[in-house]
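Students often ask why inverse folding is considered easier than folding. One informal answer: many sequences map to the same fold, so there is more than one right answer. In these notes we will look at a single instance of the problem. The structure comes first.
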């Protein structure tokens, strides 16, 4: 894929989250269990954390992004 700047200078992901994506990837890669780990991504705005999880292992993945959601 290719990232580029939008007209308002966004790249479409949050590069400062790279540490967290690496953490997710590394921990899931080393996860040892009989069944697939369950991952709940509560900030699925870009999907990058979900991609990191799926790249590491076949996971049972749920995403939630509630833009504008009000209780």
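Output (designed amino acids):
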């Amino acid at each position: 894929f290719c990232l580029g700047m939008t007209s308002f200078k966004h790249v479409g992901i949050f590069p400062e989250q790279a540490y967290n994506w690496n953490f997710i990837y590394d921990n899931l890669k080393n996860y040892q269990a009989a069944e697939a780990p369950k991952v709940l991504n509560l900030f699925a705005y870009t999907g990058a954390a979900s991609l990191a999880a799926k790249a590491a292992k076949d996971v049972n993945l749920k995403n939630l992004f509630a833009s504008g959601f009000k209780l």
